[in-house]
Amino acid sequence: MIREENISYIDGTHTAVKACSIKNCKPHWHENCIEILFVLKGELHVLQCCDEFTLRQGDFVVTNRGDLHYLYGDGNNLAVSLYIDLSAYTKRHPEILYLVFVCESFNLTAGQRAPSLELRKLLVSVIIEAFKSSPSSSVINDTAEGIVDLLVDDFDMIHCYNDQKKDLPEEQVMRYRRIMREIELQYTSRIRLDNLAQKEYMSTTYLSQFWKKLTGMNFTEYLNSRRCEQMEKLMLTTDKSVNEISVLCGFSDTKYAYRSFKKWYDTTPAARKRYYEKVLHIPDHYLEYSAEQFMEQYEENFADALLDEERIHLLLSAKRDMGWKAEYLQQAQKYAGSKIKREMIAKSHREAGINKLFLPLLDSDVISFDGVEGYAKKDPTIDRSFFDQVFSTWKDGLYTICVEISFEKRSLDQWIGALTALADYAQTKNVDLLRRCSFCIFISSIENHMNAWTLKQKIAAMTGSEDIEIALKFD
């Protein structure tokens, strides 16, 4: 069974630091402690409740207290874990044990970018101090306090949905935190929205609207997400049946519990349990470094983490100048973040009526003929990595992908060649994404209409899509 990992804090502090190269670190959790995982070299895969991330050099992510998480990689990596006992900060932040932090350096809102830079500096500072031969407990405590303040002020769940936190009145923030406290204390029982509304001296309707305005989700959705997380934990830490556990977690109906679990975890409770049972048979395989070893061997990697604000903004500016693919990947990365965050974005887009994504998927940036005229003379080169990301990101069908085709860019033969290459590759991946795509063929000359009609028939035959349009377009 999965067990809690005990943390040995630095003397005189509520903080611990550990540096490791990780191949496999068995699933575990920390009860009142958050873990900030900071990757300084290579890649590290993180399975955390219903979320899964791949952290790369310079990335960091927060694991909330009590959350199950599993770390694995190829061993050719370096990750530093910073542990902070939140129970030490309850006087400063009374509801801190009941908050959910969404802090992913690779998936920041506009309002989180500046706080993220400050958080990165504080992380580096506390790690440096912790790895000194005689670390100062007062310096560590002051820095950890700054980290906690940043997390509460800028990385609480509501700050993902309400990007400009200054627009949130303090009274609303405090009300939200009181409700979070009630949820965390009572989600294993039958929580009634009218009882919460009564405690807050408001109507049930107003409370429901208030919660959705601040989180982007309705109250029941969030409550079920917390219950499903507890279901997962009890499945893996007790011998109780799933039916027993669903009742213990506050679900009144077992079938409803199964549906909720599938929504958040994209799998069934039984399949999730089988996966972890298999993982538990893999022995721990990681190398932990002493302070001396860490600073001696990885000082250069650690220096890379010290990117100042100017250098980071230069990198972001460079990314913006890299063309539509880089811009798309930067935006799509938001859907690689936590499930809660993805749910917030999806709800917001649905309410705004955003349901289409226009991509030039067949353009030379993605499928290239290397300058050879006519697809029959040479097989095209496909950016498989890019297609894999597109296929995996939008497999849930949140958007209709609209593929743009322009005869100003390619001949009929080349468009057919590009389409054939994409259809063949999609078939090897066993995905039906193309069937769910729409296609818009742009022509700037009426004389091109026959070529466009021919291409339309080819698209329908190869993809099965029924949403294909031909349009005149003048740029």
Write structural notes for this entry:
- The protein has 17 helices and 15 strands.
- The protein has 475 residues and is of the alpha/beta class.
- Strands 1, 2, 3, 4, 5, 6, 7, 8 and 9 form a nine-stranded mixed sheet that branches. The protein has a four-stranded parallel sheet with strand order 10-13-14-15, covered by helices on one side. A two-stranded antiparallel sheet has the order 11-12.
Query: Structural class of the helices, strands and pairings?
Result: alpha/beta
Give the CA-CA distance, first to last residue.
62 Å
Compute the CA-based radius of gyration. Answer: 25 Å
> How many individual β-strands?
15
Report the uncertain regions. Answer: 307-321, 371-377
- Helix content range of the residues, please? 40-55%
Name the shape in a single word: globular
Give the strand content.
15-25%
- Total count of helical runs of at least 4 residues: 17
The averaged pLDDT comes out at: 85
Task: Give the SSE layout.
Layout: E1 3-4, E2 15-29, E3 33-41, E4 43-48, E5 51-56, E6 60-63, E7 69-72, E8 78-85, H1 113-130, H2 137-154, H3 158-161, H4 170-186, H5 193-199, H6 204-215, H7 219-237, H8 242-248, H9 254-265, H10 269-279, E9 285-289, H11 291-304, H12 309-320, H13 324-332, H14 339-352, E10 356-359, E11 367-368, E12 381-382, H15 384-393, E13 400-406, H16 412-428, E14 438-443, H17 449-463, E15 468-472
Fill in the keyword field for this structure.
45% helix, 9-stranded mixed β-sheet, alpha/beta, 4-stranded parallel β-sheet, 475 residues, 17 helices
